[in-house]
């Protein structure tokens, strides 16, 4: 490990920040220091690299190609976003005035990205930080009975693909071929129901607590609060319930035994994430490297023109519950 990397230390309320020195050769810097950066990621779970001078999507793609073990193709997206380059996506569409609560990326997918690379090509005028939460701390903070239940039973995600909100089933699965969608869902323990109007409803049961493969810590790895109906804007939720009923919501979550997750529990989970969140204001050219299995991420409200892109790498298999569909 180089001397510059040895100086990285966490700061209270902030993720570890690494000064990469004068910018201008992000790909070359990653080529030289990639192994040491991966070691830091194993140690800390998240590292913000400052000074790389990332300016374009091509810059980000070059860094991702050198740092990860292979680009990750997103499937089952909740919100449609744009593939900008090989493995590099636009940020999830989300109103600037609304906070995005902390969550793990694609925790409901059996082949989930292990590493996320967020790159700031343009920092907002105010706000817009990416809160980061060590969910081993969340697992230790939440009521033991709740954590034990989710570890034992898992959690259930139900989705109704339509035109009202989020990605269509064609966008989520990357195809307009129903047979291809059916094959994917069978292979990934997802139950499917096609509706008379051409829509799709799915149901999948997933693990909600994992043992981290590197640290051995128990981590709260799920989106049971983030994809809850109570995470929606109340007015939007009421409109969708009136139009489609509870079975037609774009997404909803339950405990693994099928019981509803009360709003008070969703609030409790989000509050635990808030207590352990750290953040660093974005600067142009920053690179944020995140262990997706250990750290959840969100987004603060902001003003101005925020341009943050994400590359997902290092796909890792997460086991499904037997007979989960």
Q: Care to give the gist of this entry?
A:
This protein is of the alpha+beta class and 325 residues long. The protein is built from 9 helices and 19 strands. The protein has 2 domains: 146 residues, 4-Layer Sandwich (Double-stranded beta-helix); 135 residues, Double-stranded beta-helix.
Write a structural description.
The chain has 325 residues and is of the alpha+beta class. The protein has two domains: 3-94 and 112-129 and 279-314, Double-stranded beta-helix, CATH 3.60.130; 137-271, Double-stranded beta-helix (4-Layer Sandwich). 28% of the residues lie in helices and 27% in strands. It contains nine helices and 19 strands. The chain has a seven-stranded mixed β-sheet with strand order 1-2-16-6-19-4-3, with helices on one face. The chain has a four-stranded antiparallel β-sheet with strand order 5-17-8-15. The model is unreliable at 1-6 (pLDDT under 50).
Rg (CA only): 19 Å
Give the helix/strand class.
alpha+beta
Largest sheet, spatial ordering of strands: 1-2-16-6-19-4-3
Number of helical stretches of at least 4 residues: 9
Which outline best applies?
A: globular
| E-strand count | 19
End-to-end separation:
46 Å
Helix and strand sequence: HEHEHEEEEEEHHEHHEEEEHEHEEEEE
The CATH superfamily title of the largest domain: Clavaminate synthase-like
Beta-strand content estimate = 25-35%
CATH topology of the largest domain: Double-stranded beta-helix
Assign the CATH class of the largest domain: Alpha Beta
Query: For the residues shown, what is the average pLDDT?
Result: 90
CATH architecture of the largest domain: 4-Layer Sandwich
How many separate domains make up the residues? Answer: 2
Protein name: Alpha-ketoglutarate-dependent taurine dioxygenase
Pfam family, one: TauD
InterPro entries: AlphaKG_dependent_hydroxylases (IPR050411), TauD-like_sf (IPR042098), TauD/TfdA-like (IPR003819)
Keywords: Antibiotic biosynthesis, Dioxygenase, Iron, Oxidoreductase
